[in-house]
């Protein structure tokens, strides 16, 4: 939805979110892999969305760029950020024991 304001076109992004709650995404962030901290793509689930930001929760510890661990494993990023993308593969679920 676009509307004209003072001669320029602006887009009303409130009506259209790029991500939705429950969606599986990948985020480029600091996390642990095989006992070492790496900066790489990590799969998570979108848990909250607003006009500008999206919250992703992970099953592994994630870290801010200054080294602090995120206690609830939820990172916030902008919808238009280059550090978030659709998951390339589906999340694997553990097989149930009969």
Give an overview in words:
The chain is an all-beta fold and 98 residues long. The protein has one domain: SH3 type barrels, CATH 2.30.30. It has strands at residues 2-5, 8-11, 24-33, 36-49, 53-57, 62-63, 74-78, 84-86. Strand 1 (2-5) and strand 2 form a beta hairpin. Residues 8-15 have low confidence and may be disordered.
What is the topology?
Layout: E1 2-5, E2 8-11, E3 24-33, E4 36-49, E5 53-57, E6 62-63, E7 74-78, E8 84-86
Antiparallel strand pairs: 1-2, 3-4, 3-6, 3-8, 4-5, 5-7
Round the mean pLDDT to the nearest integer and report it: 81
User: Which percent bin holds the helix content?
Assistant: under 10%
State the CATH topology.
SH3 type barrels
Strand content: over 45%
According to DSSP, the number of beta strands is: 8
Question: Would you summarize the structure shown here?
Answer:
The chain has 98 residues and is mainly beta.
Could you list some keywords that capture this structure?
48% strand; six-stranded antiparallel beta sheet; single chain; SH3 type barrels; two-stranded antiparallel sheet
């Amino acid at each position: 939805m676009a509307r004209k304001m003072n001669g320029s076109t602006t887009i009303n992004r409130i009506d259209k979110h790029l991500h939705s709650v429950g969606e599986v995404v990948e985020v480029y962030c600091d996390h642990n892999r095989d006992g070492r901290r790496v900066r790489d793509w990590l799969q998570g689930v979108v848990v909250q969305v607003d006009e500008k930001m999206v919250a992703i929760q992970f099953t592994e510890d994630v870290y801010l760029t200054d080294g602090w661990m995120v206690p609830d494993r939820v990172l916030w990023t902008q919808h238009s950020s280059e550090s978030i993308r659709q998951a390339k593969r589906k999340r694997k679920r553990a097989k149930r024991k009969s």
